[in-house]
Amino acid sequence: MGWLCTVLRNQFYTDFRMRKRELEDPDGAAAAKLATPAVQEHGSDLRIVWHHLGKLPPLQREALMLVAPQGMTYEAAAELMGCRVGTMKSRVSRARAVLAGSLGHSTGPPSSSLPRQARSVGRPSAPVTHGIRLVKETTVMGP
Questions:
Q1: How do residues 28-56 score in pLDDT, each as one tens digit?
Q2: Domain 54-105 class in CATH
């Protein structure tokens, strides 16, 4: 009979703890304030990246895919593609720059790969770091 009292006491404590965490929300106002990101947004972002990857030149795309997602070293990827390590680093760098530029995360490919007249076109006026525009903070002084 003592065990029954212990079970009932533990059930009371469990119910009491649960009631502290629960919120009465009969009209759903508190639930409406809670937001979770849609699951499909990540999939659409990935589709955009794959679309832009498909626009890369084949050698740059292959170099980027070997080094970035597959985690190969530059040396191993260069040996697999039959080129020098410097060429592999250059291809990966240019592919990253073009991909980042097409996704809006940097100013685009290195200027040396663009024709002279296109080098200054589309450059933002303020410096951009990791896709975030830098803004100076201002402090308002009181009277």
A1: 787 777 777 666 667 778 888 889 999 99
A2: mainly alpha
Helix (H) or strand (E) run with residue 133 in it? strand 132-133
Domain boundaries, the chain: 54-105
Q: Which residues is 132 bridged to in the sheet? A: 129
User: How far apart, in Å, do the first and last CA atoms of the chain sit?
Assistant: 75
Position 78 scores a pLDDT of 93
Q: Give the residue ranges of DSSP H helices in the chain.
A: 2-21, 29-33, 40-55, 58-67, 74-81, 85-102
Distance from chain centroid for Cα 84: 31
The amino acid at residue 125 is S
pTM of the shown model: 0.47
